[in-house]
């Protein structure tokens, strides 16, 4: 019984070594898709804006030319999710209730480090202000 167990252990240790050799390439095809690292993470929202495509990622925003797909610019922020959009402003909110209001015209943003449990509200009329409701008060922040 011990000899059989020893043979199984030796076989288990040597067989994977043979399968790790370089495998020949049987076929290869270029799909014509180029990956561009923008630093903004996985896309959660893709939307057209003016003459560009805006990709809202988990760590910020990126813009691309819709005609040829070329990268234009990006703006990196913390890991966050989109919390609202009015006109040219996108509000991104983190797990800790911090937020950034991104201006889609130039991808600049203003951020606010809120307390845990704070509620934010983007002004509906012209998206010029963000209201932050914290435990003991309300803060009115100008976005642009």
In short:
The protein is mostly beta strands and about 140 residues long.
Inertia-based shape: elongated
* Overall residue-averaged pLDDT value: 80
Which sheet architecture does the biggest sheet show? 4 strands, antiparallel
Order of helices and strands: HEEEEEEEEEEE
Number of helices: 1
How many strand units? 11
Given the helix and strand composition, which structural class is it? Answer: mainly beta
Question: Helical percent range?
Answer: 10-25%
The CATH topology of the domain at 40-113 is given as Thrombin, subunit H
What's the architecture of the domain at 40-113 in CATH terms? Beta Barrel
Characteristic terms for this protein:
single chain; 144 residues; mainly beta; Thrombin, subunit H; 4-stranded antiparallel β-sheet; 12% helix
Describe this structure in words.
The protein is mainly beta and 144 residues long. It has a domain at 40-113: Thrombin, subunit H (Beta Barrel), CATH 2.40.10. Helix content is 12%, strand content 42%. The chain has 1 helix and 11 strands; from the N terminus they run H-E-E-E-E-E-E-E-E-E-E-E. The chain has one helix spanning 2-19; strands at 43-49, 52-57, 60-64, 71-76, 81-86, 89-93, 99-103, 109-112, 119-122, 129-134, 137-142. Strands 1-2-3-4 form a 4-stranded antiparallel sheet, with no helix packed on it. Strands 5-6-7-8 form a 4-stranded antiparallel sheet, with no helix packed on it. The chain is elongated and about 80 Å long. The mean pLDDT is 80.
């Amino acid at each position: 019984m011990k000899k059989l167990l020893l043979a199984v252990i030796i076989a288990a240790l040597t067989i994977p070594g043979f399968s790790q050799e370089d495998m020949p390439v049987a076929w290869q095809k270029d799909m014509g898709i180029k990956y561009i690292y923008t630093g903004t993470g996985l896309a959660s929202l893709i939307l057209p804006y003016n003459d560009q495509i805006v990709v809202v990622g988990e760590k910020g925003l990126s813009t691309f030319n819709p005609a040829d797909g070329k990268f234009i610019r990006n703006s990196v922020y913390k890991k966050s999710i989109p919390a609202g959009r009015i006109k040219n402003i996108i509000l991104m909110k983190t797990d800790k209730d911090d937020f950034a209001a991104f201006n889609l015209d130039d991808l600049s943003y203003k951020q606010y480090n809120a307390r845990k449990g704070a509620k934010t509200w983007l002004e509906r009329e012209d998206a010029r202000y963000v209201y932050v409701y914290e435990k003991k008060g309300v803060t009115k922040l100008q976005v642009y």
